[in-house]
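Subject: Chromosome 3 open reading frame 33

B.,
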Amino acid sequence: MAVAGLVVLARSVRLTTKFTSALDIPVEFVEKNVKLRGKIHHITEKGLAVEHIPISIPFITSIQRKWQSNSLLLIRLAGVELTPSGMVWLQEELKPSQMIWFQLLGRQDLALECLVLVNKGRFLSVCLNEEILRQGLGRTARIEGLHHDSRLYWKLHKRLLRAELKALKKNRGIWKEESSFEKIRDHISNNKLVQTLKQFANWLRSYI
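Prediction pasted inline below.
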């Protein structure tokens, strides 16, 4: 009974520990893709600066608060290459002190690669990784931290690709810009004056 009590206490301490650095998070948390709760502080080019909000248990939490620091976790949107427009969108969408959930997928240096979830109403949550791609504000990228041949990797990668495909079909964000560029390029290449100049240039080369 005493040993069982110590095990329960140890788990409680770990669940109520406030993580202030990516290196503080136990390896098994990352390997099991645990979801943690946090509060947004600000957004930078490197990622989201988030304060971890652990489970609160009376007595244990009050003791831990005495020695826990206020440092923030650096969280990146896994599998997403963010554009400058995407960063602006995040800064407008996420307000300081807003609560989020982040699912651990990997750890790179001092940053955490995560799926980030935001509540939209009582029964709806939105995955920011997918929403960024759906809006055409980023491109899919390799999911760092997960084995490339794992089942989870391809499950998540397919989700992200589907989100990106929606933006592509609807010409949103970067896909709208690229579509407009292609139209201009095609218009220029089909212009009669441009075609005449090309023919003249080819004629000159044949006599040089």
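Confidence is low (pLDDT under 50) at residues 1-10.

T.
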